[in-house]
Amino acid sequence: MRYADRIHTKLTQALAPESLIVDDQSAAHAGHGGAAPGGETHFEVTVVSSVFTGKSRVARQRLVYDILKDELAERVHALSVKTLTPEEAV
C-alpha cells in the first residue's frame, strides 16, 4: 500500500475527520536530504476533526505524529501538519 494511502487510512480511523487532505510533495524535494527514489518521503497533511477540540496546537500535532509513527520510522522523512477543529475550519 502506498504511504499516502496508509496515512489517509490511519488518520481516518483514529480521528474520524470531517476533512482530510494528504498531499505528497516529494517531487518538489527531489535531490534534497531525505528524498528517495519513488517519492513518498515528504507530505503535507491537513486534518479537520472534533478530536482536536480543547487541545493545544502542539498536542494536536503530537497526536498526528504518534498515529503515523511507523510511517515516519520507515520512509516518511518530512511531515507538515495542519490541524483544525470543525469550528476553526469555517
From TrEMBL:
SUPFAM superfamilies per record: BolA-like
GO BP term (any one)? iron-sulfur cluster assembly
**Name of a matching Pfam family:** BolA
User: Which InterPro entries would you find in this protein's record?
Assistant: BolA, BolA-like_sf
The organism sits in which domain of life? Bacteria
Family from the record: Belongs to the BolA/IbaG family.
Q: What is this protein called?
A: BolA protein
Source species: Nitrospirillum iridis
